[in-house]
Amino acid sequence: MDTPSLLPIVYGVYAIASLVLTIVLARVLFRHGEVLLADVFADRPELAKAVNQLLVVGFYLVNFGYALFMLRGGHAHDAVTAIEALASKLGTLLLSLAAMHFVNLFFFHRMRRKARLADMPPPVREHGYLQGQAA
Amino acid sequence: MTELTVFYDAHCPFCVRCRDWLAAEPAHVPLRLVPADSAEAAARCGPLTGLGAHLVVADERGRFWMGAAAFVVCLWALKSFRGWAFALTHPWLRGVAAFAFDCLSASRGWLSLLVAGKRCEGACGRPPRAAYR
Q: Which of A111, B9, B82, B95 is the most buried (most CB within 10 A)?
């Protein structure tokens, strides 16, 4: 007797989980990223808002696109293989979300560092003071 | 810091090339480029051993840097290279970078031939080592 495949259920659960995960993570990123960006663009708060929005849009695009790509494939003849398929899909998605997240953090860090560099003193100590007249 | 004065060797074609490059780069701190054997340099620096043989950079308050440290301060002054100044003074790179800058200083003679096809007529011998402080 031919057992019905559980793949549609796997797909359904996966679609809902990836949707919820992406939305939740994007919102967290949006909320906390704003604090960091406000520090980077201290003199132009509207620019901080704009950059934050753009980053979140990028995050949504990449993650939804990737999640859709990941949907296809897998075997689900019984409950065990169905759970395995679901777990491997969600695991890959989560790992790629983590990678995206750290890339994002890295860029935030770089932007902050760039902004800070502008008012840092020289990294080497002077050898002394010139004996001649001042400029 | 409102201004940095760079005392360079005007008789060394390689140094003149570097001066032109420095002058063209966008800077955080305005750079004044003054030949090391000029009257202004003599007046500003007073009796300073190594002037001309080493790169010397001074700010408006009279603080000065020499040799490898002066290279770092020049990089620090430039908008696109400030990050490099910090990277090259990181404890891991500090020694290597200082050595590289000293080598660069010491190789001005043949670098001048290479870059400008002219012999160096300044103090292009091997200058004594002036490390970071």
A: B9
